[in-house]
Description:
The complex is a heterodimer of chains A (114) and B (113). By secondary structure, chain A is mainly beta. Chain A is built from no helices and eleven strands. The relative contact order of chain A is 0.33. Chain B has 113 residues and is mainly beta. Chain B has no helices and eleven strands. Chain B has strands at 4-7, 10-14, 19-25, 32-38, 45-51, 56-59, 62-67, 72-77, 86-92, 102-103, 107-112. In chain B, strands 2, 4, 5, 9, 10 and 11 form a six-stranded mixed beta sheet that branches. A five-stranded antiparallel beta sheet of chain B has the order 1-3-8-7-6, with no helix packed on it. Chain B is globular and about 45 Å long.
Amino acid sequence: DTAVSQTPKYLVTQMGNDKSIKCEQNLGHDTMYWYKQDSKKFLKIMFSYNNKELIINETVPNRFSPKSPDKAHLNLHINSLELGDSAVYFCASSQGDQVGTEAFFGQGTRLTVV
Amino acid sequence: GENVEQHPSTLSVQEGDSAVIKCTYSDSASNYFPWYKQELGKGPQLIIDIRSNVGEKKDQRIAVTLNKTAKHFSLHITETQPEDSAVYFCAASNVDSSYKLIFGSGTRLLVRP
């Protein structure tokens, strides 16, 4: 069973379009995240949700809107896509109420904006 | 905020040799330091972690050391194998006040057969 699954794995779209990436975790975790990995492999947190509540927003443009319908899902919607949005986006989850717990990552969604 | 620096950016070793990757962090309140391995086309996967109340931790061929005074921690891989080839990331977090991991810039390890 896949612990953290995100779809699609690849996404190619034109500038100006709106797209969504879905994420689901079956680990029973309370906390979910979105990370962005750029072409130089640098991983940076974008958002964090704990029990469906937004707790971290790392100055991400408001074209990016996360939605958490329940604590097992955290979807990422991106409006008006720009070339600079091309990256690999990773969803992750952890049991956020325990000290120093492992974050489990999905396989990533490679977004290419043309 | 926290800043994590990681060196080297690339590391090439002969199979059987040891590999060492070093990280420094800036926030003295950070108390959790995981290491992640990322293989091509996959998400990062935890390989070992250490908390600030421990100086060293070992798991088979992998060990991590932490120097809180100097604010640096290191990953040691002994008897390297070709399947150890991947990108390794260190990270730091203050799990008492934040749910986020701040990652280093990654080290691409190549183990030559």
